[in-house]
Amino acid sequence: MVDQETAEVSVWAATVRLREKPQLEKGAQMKYVLLNYTKAETAGERRPREMNPAVAAILERPDVSGWVRLQPAESATTVGLESRKVLFTDGPFVDSKEFLAGLILVEAENLDGALAVAAELQELDVTAAIEVRPVLEQELEGA
């Protein structure tokens, strides 16, 4: 039996998962980043200068606190370390059929709220996939 005070069950995309509820102050919002992936072969045709009005309406909502679109993956420079020397390589780190096209920052009471925003965007068929990740909000010592 699940303790209703400490956990919740979420059903999403035919997956059931049990997770601990974060300890938030009443009314506090967690931050989530929606990582927007686009198929490489359709990237050029999916980068219109004018934004889809339905997408614009979602991005203007108060629970969306920021977003950016990224230049194509070919414009990336990957910084790595090889034999204790910094190495710069033109292009993305991974060879993939999809690439990270943009980021959307969402504030929600829980993961289900962030997933709801991602689902709205996905239903508009403007992206290949959206990865939803909580933002790690902790101060780094010495920073």
Can you summarize this structure?
By secondary structure, the chain is mainly beta.
Output the number of helix runs. Answer: 2
CATH level-3 fold name: Alpha-Beta Plaits
Q: Uncertain segments of ≥5 residues (pLDDT<50)?
A: 1-22
Globally, the shape reads: flat
Per CATH, the superfamily is Dimeric alpha+beta barrel
- Can you name the CATH architecture? 2-Layer Sandwich
Briefly note the structural class of the backbone. mainly beta
Count all strands and give the number.
Answer: 8
CATH class: Alpha Beta
pLDDT averaged over residues: 76
Percent strand:
35-45%
How many whole angstroms does the radius of gyration measure?
18 Å
Structure, described:
This protein has 143 residues and is mainly β. The protein has one domain (23-134): Alpha-Beta Plaits, CATH 3.30.70. Helix content is 14%, strand content 40%. It has helices spanning 53-59, 111-123, and strands at 7-12, 15-20, 30-39, 64-69, 77-82, 85-90, 98-108, 129-134. The strands form 3 sheets. Strands 4-7-3-8 form a 4-stranded antiparallel β-sheet, covered by helices on one side. A two-stranded antiparallel ribbon has the order 1-2. Strands 5-6 form a two-stranded antiparallel sheet. The longest helix is centred in the last third of the chain and has 13 residues, at 111-123. The chain is flat and about 50 Å long. Mean pLDDT is 76; it is low at 1-22.
Write a concise keyword list for the protein shown above.
four-stranded antiparallel β-sheet, two-stranded antiparallel ribbon, 2 helices, disordered N terminus
